[in-house]
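Good morning N.,

You mentioned wanting to compare the apo and holo forms, so I went ahead and generated the holo version with NDP. This is what I fed in:
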Amino acid sequence: MNKPGKFVQDGKLRIPSTDELGFDPQEVRRKYDFERDRRLRPDGNDQYQDIDGDLKHMIDDPYIIERIEREPVQEEIEVAILGAGFGGMLMAARLHEAGITDFRIIERAGDFGGTWYWNRYPGAQCDVESYIYLPLLDETDYMPKEKYSYMPEIFEHAQRIGHHFGLYQRSYFQTQIRELRWDEVANRWTVTTDRGDVLRARHVVISSGSLNRPKLPGLPGVRDFKGHTFHTSRWDYDYTGGSSTGNLDKLGDKRVGIIGTGATGIQAVPYLGEAAQHLYVFQRTPSSVAVRGNLPTDPEWFKSLEPGWQRERNENFTALVVGAEVEEDLVNDGWTELFKALGGLMEDTGATELTADELNQLGEIVDYQYGNQVRARVTDTLKDPAVAEKLKHWYRPWCKRPTFNDDYLPTFNRSNVTLVDTGGKGVERVTEKGIVIDGVEYELDCLIFATGFEVSRATYTHQADLEIVGRDGVNLGTHWADGMRTYQGLMSHGFPNCFHMGFTQTGYTPNFTYMLDNQARHISAVLADARGRNFTSLEATKQAEEDWLALVTAPNQMTDYLASCTPGYYNAEGTSKGHDGGFLQGHYPDGGLRFYQMLAEWRAEGDYAGLTVR
Ligand code: NDP
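and this is what came out, ligand included:
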């Protein structure tokens, strides 16, 4: 790779020549555009179907061993938390620390864990370093076994947090919230559930997850398939045998098909390839698959860490991924390498003298260099050059979640594994016997959908599967009919004492748990302060909400970047416009770190700016 300094001459940007780079950026750009264009489709998000009606069994909870039997409860509490994933758990832990202990967590699943409760597919692993991904390591005094933990360890850690903070006693599992309704007279929310519970909560915090509702492609014939079928987030180990660590021994005589080669497909495929009589991987768009390099944790190093180390490490990671200056890269992995390549180059060119356009040109070159490295890895790994070509991704790194895996690519060297590339078109249809691509029918015993989750194709309340009725009987779905409307990504006008966590116009980082922890710390500090001051209701003003909307929806670099991307859920399948778009649209423009600082400054001011306080 060229030294960044080569891009500057007499203090001015000099775009290096094709000879110096070893590739022609324009040619790469043309290829990226070509691959994007042939994937764009007019139906965008509508190509997917909800899993309901006669498919609803596909989202039943396969992990519940026994149904919890209990009487309905009627309680008056300070906070109701919706969701027992890491967001809800962090919220509860931080409330506990802030001295607020009369809260309840309500969760449809049978235990803590959220994503890690549902996604038990073989090979499921965190893709951000476990030392920063697994929350509350300091508090629970737990050392992850490896740099990247697998699902059983993460799920177990969720249970550890549950025990450590006494959360089991304050949670209702296997309980689905039906409605949240604001009671203007009592200044409380009435929370009703499918178990007949009625909780009267001063505040509600919704952490129902951003990738919680599995989706299926709207393929003709999907209901006709007579073989076995399931979604990766509801893995059927009764059928496959084995566990999330592998040994899927019941697949030895089965022809298995998997649709989807995103972050989930990449992790599951090596296990399926190892076990199935034959595995067909149906690919529409290849993922970028970089080096994982997992390692066991060094206990001596872990012992040497001072209290507060996890937060410091997270801050270091977050700073790196927003391009801020740091003295040392503590995490030092594929993520930070990627960002260092992108950010470091710009710094070294003396960014103050460069125009936005010049910066974009440099960013593009670095992206292409990174892409070339990942593609070279495919060439080096695959025995068959024709298969290698099909496994190469042609889009910039942030068009889809980058993946890191050392077993995925070699799986395609196995004689019992076939890559069925669909040339960007996707699976054509499903028949009683299997899948049809280009008129060829692939007969299957089992068809697995690694096709992801609903994002921005349905309303927030549909995704969260509940009704939220605010002041004057206004439904949140109606208030957000044209897209989310929040103040600080956390509250909405007309919905007092109701807080949102997750990807709701906040500042984000690739490490979701750190983002959730910062939100939890902020909300718990606000609630503790409000209680100390006897405030009974906090509500975003209309003006504050409008100003925030203007801030987060103003076109920025990311808008243009995503518009040039191959379709996916990050850009609403290539149709994203303003805030009514994909996953990565409509967030705080200055990134996670600055966002958390901004919230801290807001709290320090102490005047609850932007809120009406009663
Ligand atoms: P994604 O939405 O990322 O991937 C869905 C896959 O299904 C894509 O490959 C998509 O192709 C494919 N697909 C959809 N429709 C069709 C069709 N008609 N024919 C063929 N293929 C089709 O879902 P994932 O579950 O993989 O990942 C979701 C997110 O979950 C990730 O982005 C990540 O944020 C998170 N995750 C994190 C992990 C971790 O390690 N921490 C692990 C797994 C997931 P196309 O790309 O063309 O749309």
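The mean pLDDT is 92.

Happy to go through it together on a call whenever suits you.

Best,
F.
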